[in-house]
Design a protein that fits this description.
Length: 68
C-alpha cells in the first residue's frame, strides 16, 4: 500500500485539481465532513492508518449526513 507521505501528496493534488485555494480550505472541508471539526491529524497519516477504501466510505457517509 501507499505510505502516509504518498497519500498526503495525493490529497493535496486532488485539492489543487478542484480549485481549493488556499489548500487549507480543502483540508478544512475534509475534516468537517469526517470529524465535525475544522482541524485534524495529517490526512495522509489518517488514510494510511484507516485504509483508503475505508476512508472513502467514511467520506461518503459524512457527505450523506450519516456521521452527524
Amino acid at each position: 500500500g501507499l505510505d502516509a507521505d504518498a497519500l498526503q501528496t495525493m490529497v493535496f493534488a486532488v485539492g489543487k485539481e478542484h480549485g481549493f485555494e488556499p489548500l487549507r480550505d480543502w483540508f478544512k472541508a475534509l475534516y468537517e465532513v469526517l470529524l465535525g471539526a475544522s482541524e485534524g491529524p495529517r490526512f495522509g497519516g489518517f488514510i494510511a492508518l484507516y485504509g483508503v477504501a475505508e476512508t472513502l466510505a467514511l467520506l461518503d457517509r459524512g457527505l450523506a449526513g450519516e456521521l452527524v
